[in-house]
Design goal:
Elements (H helix, E strand, L loop, with lengths): L3 H4 L5 H9 L2 H12 L5 H5 L7 H13 L3 E5 L7 E5 L1 H4 L2 H14 L7 H9 L1 H11 L3
Antiparallel strand pairs: 1-2
Protein name: Transcriptional regulator
GO molecular function: DNA binding
Pfam family, one: HxlR
Amino acid sequence: MVDKKTKAWSGCPVRFGMSQFGDKWSFLIIRDLMFKGRKYYHEFIEAGEGISTNVLATRLADLESNGIVNKSRDPIKGSRFIYTLTDKGIELMPMMLAMIDWAEKFDPVTEVPEDFINELRDDPKKLQQEIMEKIPR
């Protein structure tokens, strides 16, 4: 099925990717779900990035409509929702790890734990598997 929004883009993979998850707030939400164990709306707000509530709500809805994030009712407190990555979202992990590696090399203020970056560079597949086992589904 061809998405009407991307049809005119002549199959450019970068443009398609950007249409699915391509702004800083979406990447930070994916980061929080993938690496930081955040799953509730208030946890994203309190993450310290300064995202506004309306931007967060829009980005979560976009990520959900693009099949990157699932939204489900919390079974304990039914008035709130739990956000988790879908398989499609989890498939972004190699790209996210590559961004971490790249930023650690070229941004002097990027903070990546030494053991994490060493494992990423020594055995990225092993690190990816370890992270995947911790991601709630």
